[in-house]
Amino acid sequence: MTNEKAIEYRTKIDKLEDEVKKEKDRLKKSKPNEKDEIKKKIESLEEEIDKTYNSIFSEFDEDIELKSIDEINEQSILFSEFFGRYLVRLDLSTSQIRNVYGDVMRLKMKGFNPNELMLLKPRLAYTTERKGTDGSRKFREKIENALDKVIFSEDKSKQETRFQNFANFFEAILAYHRSFGGK
Predict the structure, then answer these.
(1) How far, rounded to the nearest angstrom, does the alpha carbon of residue 52 sit from its chain's CA centroid?
(2) Are 117 and 165 in contact (CB under 8 A)?
(3) What are phi and psi for residue 168, nearest 5 degrees?
């Protein structure tokens, strides 16, 4: 995705989200005979937002999270931004992300340990499936794919570098999630 395209998408999502907010405010103040029409408008706007996210994610390589483990680049950061924002939309809580992120940071500070890294998979599964939301499932899918690339790396000499990239990629998603209102 180009920077220009990313700017277009940001602008479009901002505009749609503002319209949804206005319509929800309008709904609170509306008369009973106006409510159905406003609800339909909100539903239409929400569908448009979902379509926009589908378009956004189609702009990235299908396996962007795997490529981000080999190298953090502009595409990795753009994906992190849109994915973090999307997770807010899907009501993924910051605490769900932080539980696993805390483990990643402890590993990063203690030094890379492949055995401890493997234990992140069951923790990730538990943390995300406890809530069972769409957001937690999408989050788990992307993070688990990236984690697998680190854990099952055939070239063990690249494993530590991949882990560092994984930690940075994860941190970028968390930062964007929080910046877009993740709670």
Answers:
(1) 15
(2) no
(3) -70, -40
pLDDT value at residue 55: 93
Supply φ then ψ for residue 161, to 5 degrees. Answer: -65, -40
Quick one: angle between helices 74-89 and 35-58, nearest 10?
160
Same domain, 51 and 65: no
52, 68: one domain: no
Q: Residue 135: which residues within 8 A CB-CB, separation 6 or more?
A: 87, 89, 90, 91, 92
Q: Which residue reads 């994915």 in tokens?
A: 83
Under a CB-based contact definition with an 8 Å cutoff, are residues 41 and 23 in contact? yes
Q: At residue 173, what are phi and psi to the nearest 5 degrees?
A: -60, -45
Query: Model confidence at 10, in pLDDT bands (50, 70, 90)?
Result: very high
Same domain, 35 and 95: no
Mark which of 44, 59, 74 sits at the end of a domain: 59
Q: Is pLDDT of 138 > 90?
A: no
pTM: 0.87
Radius of gyration of the chain (CA): 19
pLDDT digits (tens, 9 = 90+) for 42-63: 999 999 999 999 999 998 877 8
* Residue 72 main-chain phi, psi, to 5 deg: -80, 125
Residue 106 domain boundaries: 61-183
